[in-house]
UniProtKB/TrEMBL annotation:
Boundaries of the shown chain within the full protein: 246 to 604 of 604
Active-site annotation: 354
Domain SIS: 40-179, 211-349
Protein known as: Glutamine--fructose-6-phosphate aminotransferase [isomerizing]
Primary gene name: glmS
This enzyme's EC code(s): 2.6.1.16
Amino acid sequence: EKGPYPFYMLKEINEQPTVMRRLAQTYLDEKGQPQIAPELLAALKQADRLYILAAGTSYHAGLVAKSMFEKLAQLPTEVSLASEFGYNTPLLAKKPFFLFLSQSGETADSRQVLVKVKQWGYPSLTMTNVPGSTLSREATYTLLLKAGPEIAVASTKAYTAQIALQAILAKALGETRQLVTAQKFDIRKQLGLVANGMQTLIDEHHRFDQLAKTYLGTTSNAFYIGRGYDYPVSLEAALKLKEISYVQAEGFAGAELKHGTISLIEKGTPVIAIITDKRVASHTRSNVQEVRARGAHVLTIAMHAVAQQSDQVVLADVNPLLSALLSVVPAQLLAYYTSLNRGYDVDKPRNLAKAVTVE
Ligand code: F6R
């Protein structure tokens, strides 16, 4: 039940620190080592390429996880929209392994690919929040997100759960391959830092109401920008804003500004910059200058290690591979308050269903 919350979405945003801790408790042992079914790890260990398939927000969670599988487990990873992968299947590696990300476990776009994967005889894993769902029944393996029922149409805690669980899986695979990067990646400590950092943002949720009023109050369009690890988060941040507040929002890679999008910036255009990735922070700062010079109304969300005095939102420091788990929370709250302040039904945006069971 909603309890004291006016909408499920706020409740579900607030549950995220608990979900992070629950995933650590469920999938890590007392020493912080991953506890993943040995058959699943053995199948993954054989793979020469991981194909992550999903739709919408779950697709965005896959984009974040690509770096984890490549850096922690040295497994080449391709992330695709399930629909497009089905229509235009790429030339597959010799030993592919398929990971389906789906909160509901019922998404038709993903299912049509899983049906083919089974016909081809390749191994598959479904990460889902719903035990017994179609995709989990049909895949070779299942890992449950344990996020608790997600009622709001806009996905929040399932997205962060998917990222955290993929981090655990990548760490587990890297450990079986005896990779130093995986061994050094203290996932239990990191998920603790993430949970605390999320809680700090949630405790300040009224600030985001104010920021939403100031930056997104009456606008009909908005941009999120980010580079490196911040790019996939900008896509998810824009989707959240679009789907519940009906603001036309676009997330894009900072470097792409100059390749076209900057022509849309005019006086008062809201631009929200996500800056956590220190390899590229200074480049994103340059983007901020460029759009400000053209009149954009810029809000910056930065991680403490790369933050400046002028940043409106500062995130706790966590391992860069996990920064999306924190940087998405301000975007969820900004979308929530923008929708709320415009008087919309936050949990049931127009034209949308929680599970999309037709292609
Ligand atoms: C957006 C949202 C959708 C879903 C998409 C896939 O907030 O919830 O974009 O992520 O429909 O759904 P699942 O994860 O159930 O396969």
